[in-house]
Amino acid sequence: MGWLSRLSGTTQASPGTIAFPNPSRSYDAARQGVRFWGNDSAMDVDFFVSDEALRQLQSDVGSEQADFLRVFDLHRPRILEAAAKVYSRQRRGIHVLDASNF
User: Fold this and answer.
1) Residue of 17, 62, 75, 80 with fewest CB within 10 Å of its CB?
2) What pLDDT score was predicted for residue 16?
3) Where are the chain's structural domains?
């Protein structure tokens, strides 16, 4: 562990491992889903989870953007786990999670 890691109390992910240190997410109305980001070393990785997938996680979700963001936040650990699995299979510019990932 490097001196910076010891000072900050964080550890760096090894190359090829995805981490999700940024809790930011946003609703993408054009694609109908929630975008979020991960990091593989110094590289940013884009992820997208569809409304359909969020409805599978919680069937009583409303139809407003805020409803989908709320479902994302409630199920964040499961979504991030699915995202890491998708990323481990194939690394590309954007990773789309749909209902089959849950």
Assistant:
1) 62
2) 65
3) 3-101
